[in-house]
Amino acid sequence: MLSRFTRSLSISCSCSNLFKVVLGAAFGITALIWTTETILPSLVQVTYAEEVEKAVKKTAKEKISGELNDVTPPPDELVKLYGKLWDKAGLSEVESEFVEVFTTDLLDPVVIGTTHCREGASLGFPRYMMWTTPEEIDLNTLRVKPCWNYFFKGFRIPEDASAEDLEELKKNLLLTNEEREFIVTLALRKANSYQSWFRIPIPGFMILFNYSLGAIINQKLNLFSQPKYMRLGIQALVWYICMVALILLHNHLKFNGERLPLPDVIRTSGEAEAAIEYFNKLINRNMILRKILGPDSHHYFQEDGEIVPSFYELGDLFTNQKMILFIQDIKERLLIIEAKRRELEENAGK
């Protein structure tokens, strides 16, 4: 009897200590994500910013304080578009002051933070997206970096690439005015959402949920009296279920973050056509880059022109082709609305 009581007390004490560790880990991860999303977006921005070649590296303190003269400044075209489009994206004059634009070394735009916090949001755009004329295209300085990786600085366009492939690449890199306005407006709209706030508590909550679910199963099945392999197997299953739930929740939030702003950004059939053409260019760009860069790029670019998703992403949800189909639905609705509007105007004029 005494030994059983002693064993129960020991288990209770160990569970209490484990709960403190789990609680500390949950709050620690939540605090870290909250800090990077709302307090230090400028520091996060530096990890995505395009660096000036042969520039003197800055210390962490200098980066936090905003001394970023070692990174490529935003192009004049980007600054002009930001000043022109913040109102169209639904930002108030006050909210527009909480947005910073910069040049990213990634192949596609990136949105950091939100306008609904003290430090605001940072919007990064690759330099090539702000080229406005064929004369500005400079493939010698172009760095192809499909995703963020601290140890990977990106591909360079090989010197022996065929002239035909290079011309095709240039054609798909150069965006029209309408396409540039679409992507900048879309990024501004994303920055003006609460997606960052929704993402902050999820990992910490799932850690607590995993612990709570495991504790309940331990009590219900009396697992502490069962063989160790049985306890480990059941807890591994609980952990797996929680990880799948976390991944599904992450993808659901990302899916909403990608799709929900589109109807607010695309208001005419012409804007829908520009958006479709933009995503078509991304597909063609990726296909020609895969061809030019060779087998080393196959880890990043798929044959169908999509970028290889991360292991935690449900890639089929976020393909450029799916975005095109979604925008085509928007375009069809807009065409019906525009036709009805013209009909009403014609009837009113009679």
Structural class comes to mainly alpha
User: How widely separated are the two ends?
Assistant: 98 Å
Number of helical segments? 13
Radius of gyration: 25 Å
The level of helicity is 55-70%
Characterize the main sheet. 3 strands, mixed
- The order of strands across the largest sheet is 1-3-2
Q: Secondary-structure element order, as H and E?
A: HHHHHEEEEEHHHHHHHH
Spans of 5+ residues with little confidence (pLDDT < 50)? 1-13
Number of strands: 5
Description:
The chain has helices at 2-39, 41-48, 60-64, 76-85, 93-96, 163-173, 177-191, 195-199, 202-221, 228-259, 262-265, 269-293, 320-349, and strands spanning 99-104, 110-113, 121-126, 143-144, 155-156. With 350 residues, it is mostly helical. It has a domain at 41-193 and 260-349. A three-stranded mixed sheet has the order 1-3-2, sandwiched between helices. Strand 2 (110-113) and strand 3 (121-126) form a beta hairpin. The longest helix is centred in the N-terminal third of the chain and has 38 residues, at 2-39.
List the helices and strands and how they pair.
Blueprint: H1 2-39, H2 41-48, H3 60-64, H4 76-85, H5 93-96, E1 99-104, E2 110-113, E3 121-126, E4 143-144, E5 155-156, H6 163-173, H7 177-191, H8 195-199, H9 202-221, H10 228-259, H11 262-265, H12 269-293, H13 320-349
Parallel strand pairs: 1-3
Antiparallel strand pairs: 2-3, 4-5
Question: In a nutshell, what does this entry contain?
Answer:
By secondary structure, the protein is mostly helical. The chain is built from 13 helices and 5 strands.
